[in-house]
């Protein structure tokens, strides 16, 4: 079972990396903000998946991360808030609506 989990995590990291590279290349070429938002979202997915992967397979990292997460969950909170903001920004770009200040308030609550 550990082998399947290991291979799944590696496959996911490769897939996210390919999508990130493609999206960032499209941003460089077209200068459209949506591709930048998608690239940043994929980067957060990669960071989150890497942390999860390390907690599953590295015993010392697992202990340190769990201890720090219980006292100050700043890293995971930053990833979650960044992901929520990027979802909001991508939706605003796709639907072509202005971002409102109330939207930022909703993200923080």
Fold topology:
Elements: H1 2-30, H2 33-57, H3 59-71, H4 74-95, H5 101-108
Helix pairs in contact: 1-2, 2-3, 2-4, 4-5
Unreliable spans are: none
Largest sheet: none
**Proportion of strand residues:** under 5%
Task: Count structural domains.
Answer: 1
* Arithmetic mean pLDDT: 87
Please report the distance between the alpha carbons of the first and last residues: 39 Å
Approximately how much helix is present in the residues?
over 70%
- The number of helical runs is 5
Evaluate the radius of gyration.
17 Å
Would you tell me the structural class of the helices and strands?
Answer: mainly alpha
Describe, in plain words, how this protein is organized in 3D:
There is one protein chain. This protein is mainly alpha-helical. It has one domain (2-108). 89% of the residues lie in helices and 0% in strands. The chain contains five helices and no strands. The chain has helices spanning 2-30, 33-57, 59-71, 74-95, 101-108. Helix 1 runs antiparallel to helix 2. The longest helix is centred in the first third of the chain and has 29 residues, at 2-30.
């Amino acid at each position: 079972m550990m082998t399947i989990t290991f291979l799944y995590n590696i496959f996911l990291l490769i897939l996210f990396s390919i999508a990130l590279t493609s999206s960032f290349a499209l941003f460089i070429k077209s200068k459209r903000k949506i591709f930048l938002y998608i690239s940043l979202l994929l980067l957060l997915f990669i960071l989150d998946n890497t942390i999860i992967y390390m907690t599953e397979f590295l015993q010392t990292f697992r202990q340190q991360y769990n201890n720090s997460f219980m006292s100050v969950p700043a890293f995971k909170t930053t990833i979650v808030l960044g992901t929520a903001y990027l979802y909001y920004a991508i939706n605003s770009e796709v639907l072509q609506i202005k971002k409102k200040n109330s939207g930022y308030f909703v993200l923080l609550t």
